[in-house]
């Protein structure tokens, strides 16, 4: 086979990166499944036993039993109840009974696909005798589109379109409306009202979104595709939230669906995709630190029949920073195209390109003068201790992929998601390595890290349903593949002289940098998985099993070449009982694994990190769909935790440690009235080291880094609907984060803080119909400008938390 190589270099990086398009084509042809046709008309008789229940739940069970794909806007089913259906019926007759008395109607668009619409208040019939229906936007839950703060369905946790209340694990969803209402500029900001989710290195980093949940770092998927990650955690994509439809935070091990993973959880980011109704939006934004930003979002059908759809989203930003010499610049563009040759088949091609340049507000300063007293006084929050002539952070990233699905007439569905993600990073900094006895003068080192990473993923699965006696089965079986190529090179040297923290003078000439090491890792993972969601009456059992094959090769300038070949078997089982009133208690057990990119002190392979979790909880979805509550208790262990070699002249890692995390989490999202919405959350987390390696016994019983004992938040959003103030919106929130430790030895305790956020909006269409679609939103984060230390890495590296930021966004939609 001939391979075509395309070379793309990192800015300032001599390493050429090769992408083998022949391999891509071979992978596509290997994983692609041929389209097949079968005859199973919608009139086929099936046995139904769907009780009286909320309409959404009944429609979900109908789809699983009949194999009919239902398309409808979730807003039209909110608050509706059905008397259910029972007996052996055709799909049309069964669906008609379910919708009886709801004010909704259906239309079959294919042998096994139907749309549900609202009956027009005007009523009447057309010339052909069909019923006149309102025009309703069809928005599939699988595309991630939601309305308001509440998501009722989820596809990330199970890879199937499942009611969120029936998923036996805690899943927190941040919707598009919540992102906008809270003025979130990063994924890190978008998840700050999510229980148990913490910024791993503080909240002032404008370079990366590094988060952790339940005591451990979380990795990211973009549209189900694993984003790059590596041993040195340098080559990260940072996804622009304006290009996202929703953010799903999956708590606990998720290896059954996605393979290698850490036990704290996984965050899946869903990009904006083409819509069937026209969408046109432009916006401008200004704010703190001379921020200027422009945005646009266009979508809709290309042809009159709606067979071809498009979306184009873009953003450009130029801003300063909180710290002296800081800046933040971004260019982002995301096109998407959908082809729907039939009602049963769709193909969507999508991607994005992004370029970032910044000197981050994430500036390390000594603990003396920030967290601890300093005889020279308190260090100001905007103090820059680096060298602006040398420092900077440049990133170029892109992704391209497609998602394909075809619904067979038998009721089975084949899906394939393929995506390629790429990132190049050039990071230059001037950190300190010593503070003199007067606690005033720093000795600094100039450094540069060049990182690059690619990840290619393809996931093909088949879903369908069948019955065994009274038990309904929804089965998923799939095969996925991951190829990860990650590299990092690092160089540094000492600056001459010292730096006065309290009377800074800039302009030091950076020294010639000395190469310290080069690292490259290639990893390949293939996973075979199966899942069965079984339903009997109101009982729902979900069971999954996965087998992974992983091989990796690493080249390090210090340690040479090292290869690892490992296999892993992971599983998950959960039980849910769904009461007719919307209450659903659940219990689950799940496992995870994560290979270690290093070797033991004796030169052997290290065992993968292994996680296991027991979780029990209760979910509640109100019959009208306006309230969703999740409360959970969990106990998880991470085995085979590594520790550095205690011999300073030796290499490799020790492996015998173990960490235990247990806690409680609570989240409530509710529309108290049509005008008033509430988000409330709380998390208690107890995370400690329970087993240590030889030479690291001092860590036994210590708390994990940056895991606060308590965390709580509340957000209220009120809109004036009538009177002279109609169109005015007010929002506000409180965020509390308790104390935590910034280092493994628990020598630096980072105190807790309470932060206030606020929002003000106005819909000009309420003032004058000519201004329909024009609205203004003002958001303030840390409104009271609370001064606090967000994290300490050691005595020389403490980081101030995010200060007050205010932004105003003027948006027009038509």
Automatic annotation (TrEMBL):
It is found in: Cell outer membrane. InterPro entries: Beta-barrel_TonB, Beta-barrel_TonB_sf, Plug_dom, Plug_dom_sf, Secretin/TonB_short_N, TonB-dep_rcpt-like, TonB_sidphr_rcpt. Transmembrane segments: none annotated. The keyword Transmembrane applies. CDD domains: ligand_gated_channel. It is a multi-pass membrane protein. SMART domains: STN (SM00965). Its main location: membrane. The keyword Transmembrane applies. Belongs to the TonB-dependent receptor family. This is Iron complex outermembrane receptor protein.
């Amino acid at each position: 086979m001939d391979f075509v190589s395309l070379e793309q270099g990192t800015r300032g990086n001599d390493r050429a990166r090769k992408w083998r398009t022949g391999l891509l084509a071979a992978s596509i042809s290997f994983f692609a499944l041929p389209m097949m046709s079968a005859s199973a008309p919608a009139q086929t008789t099936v046995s139904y036993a769907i009780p009286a229940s909320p309409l959404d739940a009944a429609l979900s069970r109908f789809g699983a039993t009949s194999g009919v794909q239902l398309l409808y806007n979730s807003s039209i089913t909110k608050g509706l109840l059905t008397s259910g259906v029972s007996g052996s019926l055709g799909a049309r007759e069964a669906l008609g009974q379910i919708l009886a008395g709801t004010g909704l109607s259906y239309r079959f668009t294919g042998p096994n696909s139907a749309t549900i619409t609202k009956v027009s208040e005007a009523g009447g019939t057309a010339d052909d005798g069909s019923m006149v229906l309102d025009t309703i936007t069809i928005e599939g839950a699988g595309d991630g589109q939601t309305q308001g703060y509440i998501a009722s369905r989820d596809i990330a946790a199970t890879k199937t379109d499942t009611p969120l209340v029936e998923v036996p694990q805690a899943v927190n969803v941040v919707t598009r409306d919540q992102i906008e209402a809270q003025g979130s500029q990063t994924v890190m900001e978008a998840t700050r009202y999510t229980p148990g989710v913490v910024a791993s290195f503080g909240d002032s980093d404008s370079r990366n979104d590094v988060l952790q949940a339940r005591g451990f770092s979380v990795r990211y998927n973009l549209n189900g595709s694993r984003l790059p990650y590596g041993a040195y955690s340098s080559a990260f994509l940072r996804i622009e939230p304006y290009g996202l439809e929703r953010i799903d935070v999956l708590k606990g091990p998720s290896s059954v669906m996605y393979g290698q993973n850490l036990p704290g959880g996984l965050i899946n980011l869903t990009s904006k995709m083409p819509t069937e109704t026209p969408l046109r939006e432009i916006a401008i934004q200004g704010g703190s630190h001379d921020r200027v930003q422009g945005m646009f979002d266009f979508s809709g059908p290309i042809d009159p029949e709606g067979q071809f759809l498009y979306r184009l989203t873009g953003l450009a930003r130029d801003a300063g920073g909180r710290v002296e010499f800081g800046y933040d610049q971004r260019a982002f563009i995301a096109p998407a195209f959908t082809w729907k040759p039939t009602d049963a088949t769709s193909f969507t091609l999508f991607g994005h390109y992004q370029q970032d340049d910044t000197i981050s507000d994430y500036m390390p300063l000594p603990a003396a003068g920030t967290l601890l007293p300093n005889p020279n006084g308190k260090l100001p929050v905007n103090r820059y201790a680096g060298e602006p002539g040398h420092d900077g952070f440049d990133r170029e990233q892109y992704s391209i992929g497609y998602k394909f699905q075809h619904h067979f007439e038998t009721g089975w569905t084949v899906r394939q998601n393929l995506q390629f993600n790429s990132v190049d990073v050039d990071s230059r900094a001037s950190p300190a390595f010593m503070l003199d006895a007067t606690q005033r003068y720093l000795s600094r080192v100039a450094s540069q890290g060049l990182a690059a990473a690619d990840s290619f993923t393809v996931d093909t699965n088949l879903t369908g349903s069948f019955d065994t006696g009274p038990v309904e089965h929804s089965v998923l079986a799939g095969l996925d593949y991951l190829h990860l190529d990650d590299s990092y090179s690092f160089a540094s040297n000492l600056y001459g002289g010292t730096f006065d923290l309290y009377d800074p003078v800039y302009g030091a000439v950076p020294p010639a940098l000395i190469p310290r090491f080069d690292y490259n890792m290639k990893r390949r993972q293939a996973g075979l998985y199966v899942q069965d969601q079984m339903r009997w009456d109101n009982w729902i059992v979900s069971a999954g099993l996965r087998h992974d094959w992983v091989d990796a090769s690493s080249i390090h300038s210090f340690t040479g070449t090292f290869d690892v070949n490992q296999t892993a078997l992971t599983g998950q089982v959960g039980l849910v009982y769904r009461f007719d009133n919307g209450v659903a208690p659940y219990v689950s057990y799940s496992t995870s694994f994560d290979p270690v990119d290093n070797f033991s002190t004796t030169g052997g392979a290290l065992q993968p990190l292994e996680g296991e979790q027991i979780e029990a909880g209760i979910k509640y979805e109100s019959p009208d769909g306006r309230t969703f509550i999740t409360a959970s208790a969990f106990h998880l262990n991470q085995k085979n935790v590594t520790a550095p070699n205690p011999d300073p002249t030796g290499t490799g890692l020790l492996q015998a440690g173990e960490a235990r995390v247990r806690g409680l989490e609570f989240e409530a999202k509710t529309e108290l009235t049509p005008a008033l919405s509430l988000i409330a959350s709380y998390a208690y987390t107890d995370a400690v080291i329970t087993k240590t390696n030889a030479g690291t016994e001092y860590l036994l019983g210590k708390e994990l880094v940056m895991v606060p004992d308590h965390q709580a938040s509340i957000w209220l959003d009120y809109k004036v609907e009538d009177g002279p103030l109609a169109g005015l919106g007010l929002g506000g929130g409180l965020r509390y984060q308790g104390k935590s430790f910034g280092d493994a030895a628990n020598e630096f305790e980072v105190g807790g803080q309470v932060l206030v956020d606020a929002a003000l909006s106005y819909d000009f269409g309420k003032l004058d119909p000519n201004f329909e679609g024009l609205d203004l939103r003002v958001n303030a984060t840390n409104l009271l400008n609370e001064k606090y230390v967000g994290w300490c890495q050691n005595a020389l590296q403490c980081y101030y938390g995010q200060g007050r930021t205010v932004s105003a966004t003027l948006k027009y939609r038509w």
